[in-house]
From TrEMBL:
<feature type="domain" description="TGS">
    <location>
        <begin position="412"/>
        <end position="473"/>
    </location>
</feature>
<protein>
    <submittedName>
        <fullName>Bifunctional (P)ppGpp synthetase/guanosine-3',5'-bis(Diphosphate) 3'-pyrophosphohydrolase</fullName>
    </submittedName>
</protein>
<dbReference type="InterPro" id="IPR002912">
    <property type="entry name" value="ACT_dom"/>
</dbReference>
<dbReference type="InterPro" id="IPR012675">
    <property type="entry name" value="Beta-grasp_dom_sf"/>
</dbReference>
<dbReference type="InterPro" id="IPR012676">
    <property type="entry name" value="TGS-like"/>
</dbReference>
<dbReference type="InterPro" id="IPR006674">
    <property type="entry name" value="HD_domain"/>
</dbReference>
<comment type="pathway">
    <text>Purine metabolism.</text>
</comment>
<dbReference type="InterPro" id="IPR003607">
    <property type="entry name" value="HD/PDEase_dom"/>
</dbReference>
<dbReference type="InterPro" id="IPR004811">
    <property type="entry name" value="RelA/Spo_fam"/>
</dbReference>
<dbReference type="InterPro" id="IPR033655">
    <property type="entry name" value="TGS_RelA/SpoT"/>
</dbReference>
<feature type="domain" description="HD">
    <location>
        <begin position="64"/>
        <end position="164"/>
    </location>
</feature>
<dbReference type="Pfam" id="PF13328">
    <property type="entry name" value="HD_4"/>
</dbReference>
<comment type="function">
    <text>In eubacteria ppGpp (guanosine 3'-diphosphate 5'-diphosphate) is a mediator of the stringent response that coordinates a variety of cellular activities in response to changes in nutritional abundance.</text>
</comment>
<dbReference type="Pfam" id="PF04607">
    <property type="entry name" value="RelA_SpoT"/>
</dbReference>
<dbReference type="InterPro" id="IPR007685">
    <property type="entry name" value="RelA_SpoT"/>
</dbReference>
<dbReference type="Pfam" id="PF02824">
    <property type="entry name" value="TGS"/>
</dbReference>
<dbReference type="InterPro" id="IPR043519">
    <property type="entry name" value="NT_sf"/>
</dbReference>
């Protein structure tokens, strides 16, 4: 017994030592920052959280307090936040996981920390609840809270980053849910707040857990090509260093290597291999300006100096110095032709710009006493204002709301000028209509067209960077339902939907009045029985649709309606057919029942943590939606649909991305256990230089060497270049890889792409 106590004590001592060392590291990091030193407040928060979480462990087995310390460490070292944020990070799970309340936190640590902890508690448990509607409500809470104090979302991002770093201890289905949620919401949020380093890590970790083999393959390829990249970097930067030294600048030059996730994303979107990606290496010049007010001029001086050494690409100069991105990012991007014949992007930025690029808005927030934020971040406030406008109008569909927010999170930006020459930042791909709503709702809702660069264009015209736009309006113009198809910004879509819903409510009200008046003339009163009869008679699905049809004059009430209400039925054609041919419908139904697949149904008590195995025998029990065509060998997951059946998706499928972040508790780990008995469809596209006999070689490789079943071949040739599409029957993903490797060896074939 004594021996056991000694073991427990030594374990306790080792754990205490680990916890205290982690906290000391946090304090040491904090003391090196430029913040006002409030060590007592942070220590008090640590001791309180340590006591509150005593005895609780994480799934990894370590004491729970290690998580809040890690989150506080990220807030301090990787975001540059101060004592209020660090203390709130240490306390962020106390209210949710223990008996302490927000009032307790306020009494001990004051209003500001309590407000942040309260915001974090409201949006805890991942952003999302059990259903999509709950998820959107939580997301609204998150954004509303964020508008009060941006530090809530910053600490939430720190929390998610630590959860992603320790995701290995979670079961696979939970990993896909959390990774999917991270890619769908948190990485775009981090990007929008200018947290470039954190955004990249979140994307990479999500990629690593969702596609471990592809992640490792890209990591290995990056390692294999490291030496050639180092050599290219050294040769390219040597003359640049000489030029900068002559200018007497204090500077450093860094190599920036594209992240595995970015490489994989480009491989997927452009259908290229690792070897065909030429912008893996970029060069970053970070200089210390001689005078702070001269930093913009110095960026251009460096650009002039290096473009005398290398030829610059005329279409790839990006001036984010004079026109910063909405997330505060500033830099001058130029693409130069190296002596090895490769285009290399060079990013020129001052030390201040570099700090903002890495740490985001937090790097240039100014804090008063007590770490109060000075609200001088115009772009950030504009973004928060847009979100508040969207939140002010209740959205009927939860997923629409999330998609609307995502439109703004992901958008890259263009610059558009008003007739008076003011610059407006707009998302790329936006239309004249979006621009009208961006300026004012009245302007948008009465917009009839626009003049872009003094030429008349329709509302659907897509704007380019540098366009000057004048909106033309008419008081007789009203919002049209078709507008929703070419509006692309969250603000415009939200306003159009709100106006259409308001108009629909007015039409519905008018329809109700028409019905009341009509029935009154026939001494009848409106009741649910009469409405149901009229809905059936006019074949509309619900009372609202009936009222809208009446309001729009699509249905005109008459004597036949009174006959219908009084039970004097007039048979419609479908009814007549059913009367004389009673077996037609039943026969159809019977056949449909015979063809109905025997799907696996998830019962209560089903273990969702264990993987499901797809075999040759049970494959017919799962649903394979058309969105992504998974085949054996693809990274797959299962999703329990509304009828408790299981859908199989690729983990990279865009539909699955939404499911992971909306219905995370219904995600299952899916594994293939196939034995090459069944065939699946695959399409391979080939492109190359035409020559006599090339088609013959392609078919020989497929049918003779690989014994592949060719379903269909389509080839077209234009001016010596051919395009081909091969529809094949294969067993699994390995077959596809094997076919592509063999086809690559045929002389003349330049590009091979596997289409989903």
């Amino acid at each position: 017994m004594d021996e056991q106590n000694n073991i427990d004590k030594s374990k306790e001592t080792a754990e205490d030592k680990m916890v205290n060392e982690a906290f000391q590291h946090l304090l040491d990091s904090y003391l090196t920052t430029r913040h006002r030193k409030k060590v007592d407040l942070i220590t008090k928060a640590f001791n309180f959280a340590k006591q509150a979480h005593k005895g609780v462990r994480r799934l990894s087995g370590e004491p729970y307090i290690m998580h809040p310390i890690a989150v506080a460490q990220i807030a301090c070292s990787e975001m540059g936040l101060g004592s209020t944020s660090i203390s709130a990070a240490l306390l962020h799970d106390v209210v949710e996981d223990t008996d302490y309340t927000v009032e307790d936190i306020e009494n001990i640590f004051g209003h500001k920390i309590a407000q942040i902890v309260d915001g974090l508690t409201k949006i805890s448990g991942g952003i999302f609840g059990e259903q999509a509607s709950a998820q959107a409500e939580n997301f609204k809470k998150l954004l509303l809270t964020m508008s009060d104090d941006i530090r809530v979302i910053l600490i939430k991002i720190c929390d998610r980053l630590h959860n992603m770093r320790t995701l290995a201890s979670q079961p696979a289905n939970k990993q896909y849910k959390i990774a999917g949620e991270t890619l769908y919401i948190y990485a775009p949020l981090a990007n929008r707040l200018g947290l470039n380093k954190i955004k990249t890590e979140l994307e990479n970790l999500s990629f690593k857990f969702e596609h471990p083999e592809e992640y490792k393959a890209i990591e290995d390829q990056l390692a294999d090509t490291q030496a050639s990249r180092d050599s290219l970097f050294a040769d390219f930067t040597t003359p640049i260093r000489e030029a900068l030294d002559k200018m007497g600048l204090e500077y450093q030059i860094k190599a920036r290597v594209k992240s595995p996730y970015s490489i994989w994303n480009k491989m997927q979107n452009k259908h290229v291999t690792f070897d065909q990606i030429y912008d893996i290496l970029a060069v970053r010049i970070i200089f210390k300006p001689k005078k702070r007010e001269e930093e913009v001029n110095e960026c251009f001086n460096i650009y002039v100096a290096i473009s005398q050494i290398y030829k610059s690409h005329p279409d790839r100069l990006r001036d984010w110095v004079n026109h910063p991105k909405a997330n505060g990012y500033q830099a001058l991007h130029v693409t130069l032709m190296s002596k090895q014949g490769r285009w290399i992007e060079v990013q020129i930025r001052s030390d201040r710009m570099d700090e903002i690029a890495e740490q985001g808005f937090a790097a240039h927030w100014k804090y008063k006493e007590g770490e109060e934020i000075v609200e001088d971040d115009g772009e950030l406030n504009n973004w928060l204002r847009t979100i508040k406008e969207i939140l002010d109008d209740p959205q009927p569909d939860a997923m629409d709301f999330l998609d609307a927010i995502k439109l703004n999170l992901f958008a890259s930006e263009i610059f558009v000028f008003t007739p008076k020459g003011e610059i407006k930042t707009m998302p790329a791909g936006c239309t004249a209509l979006d621009f009208a709503f961006q300026i004012h709702t009245f302007l948008g809702s009465h917009c009839i067209g626009a003049k872009v660069n003094h030429k008349l264009v329709p509302l659907s015209h897509k704007l380019q960077s540098g366009d000057q736009v004048e909106i033309l309006t008419s008081n007789s113009q009203h919002v049209q339902p078709s507008w929703i198809n070419f509006a692309s910004t969250a603000k415009a879509k939200a306003k159009i939907q709100a106006i259409l819903r308001r108009d629909a409510r007015e039409i519905q009200k008018k329809g109700e009045e028409i019905l009341n008046e009509f029935l009154g003339k026939h001494s009848l009163e409106v009741n649910s029985s009469i409405i149901d009869k009229l809905c059936d008679y006019h074949e509309v699905k619900n009372p609202e649709a009936l009222f809208r049809a009446l309001g729009n004059k699509n249905i005109i009430l008459g004597d036949k309606d009174i006959d219908e209400i009084n039970g004097k039925k007039k048979q419609n054609i479908a009814g007549t057919l059913r009367k004389f041919v009673p077996f037609v419908g039943k026969e159809k139904k019977k056949n449909a029942e015979e063809k109905q697949p025997n799907y696996f149904i998830v019962k209560e008590g089903f273990n969702r943590k264990k993987p499901i195995y797809i075999t040759d025998e049970n494959i017919g029990q799962f649903i394979f939606p058309t969105c992504c065509h998974p085949i054996p060998g693809d990274d797959a997951l299962g999703f329990i649909d509304g009828k408790n059946r299981i859908e199989i998706h690729k983990r990279s499928c865009p539909v699955a991305a939404k499911l992971k972040s909306s219905y995370g508790n219904r995600i299952l780990d899916a594994k293939w256990d196939m034995h090459r008995q069944l065939f699946f469809d695959a399409t391979i596209e080939i492109k190359g230089i035409d020559r006599i006999g090339i088609l013959n070689e392609v078919t020989q490789v497929l049918s003779e060497e690989l014994n592949v079943n060719i379903h269909k071949i389509t080839i077209s040739c234009d001016e010596g270049i051919f395009d081909g599409s091969l529809e094949l029957r294969i067993h699994d993903r390995d077959d596809v890889r094997n076919i592509i490797d063999k086809l690559k060896k045929i002389n003349g074939i330049q590009e091979i792409t596997q289409i989903v």
